[in-house]
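Onboarding guide, step 5: your first structure request.
Type a short instruction followed by the sequence, for example:

Predict the 3D structure of this protein.
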Amino acid sequence: MKAPVVKQVTVRLPLNLWRTVKARAASEGRTLQAILTDVLATYLVLPTVQTAERALILRAQSIHGNNTTAIAKDVGLSRRTIYRRLKTIPQTVGGD
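The system replies with C-alpha coordinates like these:
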Protein backbone atom coordinates (compact mmCIF):
# COMPACT_ATOMS: atom_id res chain seq x y z
CA MET A 1 0.00 0.00 0.00
CA LYS A 2 1.39 3.37 -1.00
CA ALA A 3 1.67 6.26 1.41
CA PRO A 4 -0.70 9.14 0.70
CA VAL A 5 0.77 12.07 -1.18
CA VAL A 6 0.82 15.24 0.87
CA LYS A 7 1.06 18.54 -0.96
CA GLN A 8 3.38 21.02 0.67
CA VAL A 9 2.26 24.60 0.87
CA THR A 10 4.49 27.53 1.69
CA VAL A 11 2.88 30.05 4.00
CA ARG A 12 4.50 33.31 5.00
CA LEU A 13 3.39 34.29 8.48
CA PRO A 14 3.94 37.56 10.29
CA LEU A 15 6.78 37.23 12.80
CA ASN A 16 4.53 37.68 15.84
CA LEU A 17 2.17 34.93 14.63
CA TRP A 18 5.12 32.62 13.92
CA ARG A 19 6.46 33.17 17.45
CA THR A 20 3.02 32.42 18.88
CA VAL A 21 2.77 29.18 16.89
CA LYS A 22 6.25 28.05 17.97
CA ALA A 23 5.56 28.86 21.63
CA ARG A 24 2.22 27.07 21.55
CA ALA A 25 3.77 24.01 19.92
CA ALA A 26 6.46 23.89 22.60
CA SER A 27 4.04 24.35 25.49
CA GLU A 28 1.49 21.82 24.20
CA GLY A 29 4.03 19.31 22.96
CA ARG A 30 2.43 19.19 19.50
CA THR A 31 3.99 19.52 16.08
CA LEU A 32 4.22 22.85 14.31
CA GLN A 33 2.04 21.46 11.52
CA ALA A 34 -0.75 20.57 13.96
CA ILE A 35 -0.65 24.00 15.60
CA LEU A 36 -0.52 25.75 12.19
CA THR A 37 -3.53 23.78 11.02
CA ASP A 38 -5.51 24.94 14.06
CA VAL A 39 -4.37 28.56 13.74
CA LEU A 40 -5.07 28.79 10.00
CA ALA A 41 -8.48 27.15 10.40
CA THR A 42 -9.33 29.90 12.88
CA TYR A 43 -8.35 32.71 10.52
CA LEU A 44 -9.52 31.27 7.20
CA VAL A 45 -13.28 31.61 7.25
CA LEU A 46 -15.15 30.48 4.16
CA PRO A 47 -18.06 32.57 2.96
CA THR A 48 -21.60 31.28 3.23
CA VAL A 49 -23.51 30.43 0.07
CA GLN A 50 -25.63 33.55 0.58
CA THR A 51 -22.54 35.77 0.85
CA ALA A 52 -20.91 34.19 -2.19
CA GLU A 53 -24.12 34.54 -4.22
CA ARG A 54 -24.48 38.18 -3.19
CA ALA A 55 -20.88 38.92 -4.24
CA LEU A 56 -21.44 37.18 -7.57
CA ILE A 57 -24.63 39.15 -8.27
CA LEU A 58 -22.99 42.45 -7.33
CA ARG A 59 -20.01 41.68 -9.58
CA ALA A 60 -22.34 40.85 -12.47
CA GLN A 61 -24.29 44.04 -11.77
CA SER A 62 -21.11 46.11 -11.92
CA ILE A 63 -20.45 44.60 -15.36
CA HIS A 64 -23.99 44.70 -16.78
CA GLY A 65 -25.50 47.65 -14.92
CA ASN A 66 -29.24 47.17 -14.34
CA ASN A 67 -29.67 44.70 -17.21
CA THR A 68 -31.23 41.91 -15.14
CA THR A 69 -31.45 39.57 -18.13
CA ALA A 70 -27.67 39.75 -18.62
CA ILE A 71 -27.05 39.44 -14.87
CA ALA A 72 -29.30 36.37 -14.66
CA LYS A 73 -27.60 34.75 -17.64
CA ASP A 74 -24.13 35.50 -16.25
CA VAL A 75 -24.93 34.23 -12.74
CA GLY A 76 -27.06 31.29 -13.82
CA LEU A 77 -30.24 32.27 -12.00
CA SER A 78 -33.65 33.28 -13.30
CA ARG A 79 -34.55 36.96 -13.79
CA ARG A 80 -37.18 36.64 -11.09
CA THR A 81 -34.59 35.35 -8.62
CA ILE A 82 -32.24 38.20 -9.54
CA TYR A 83 -35.03 40.73 -8.87
CA ARG A 84 -35.73 39.13 -5.47
CA ARG A 85 -32.05 39.03 -4.52
CA LEU A 86 -31.45 42.63 -5.62
CA LYS A 87 -34.32 43.76 -3.36
CA THR A 88 -32.51 42.27 -0.35
CA ILE A 89 -29.11 43.77 -1.22
CA PRO A 90 -28.73 47.34 0.08
CA GLN A 91 -28.06 49.68 -2.83
CA THR A 92 -25.27 52.20 -2.32
CA VAL A 93 -25.65 55.71 -3.64
CA GLY A 94 -22.66 56.82 -5.67
CA GLY A 95 -20.97 60.18 -5.31
CA ASP A 96 -18.41 61.80 -3.10
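Each response can be followed by summary notes, for example: The mean pLDDT is 83.
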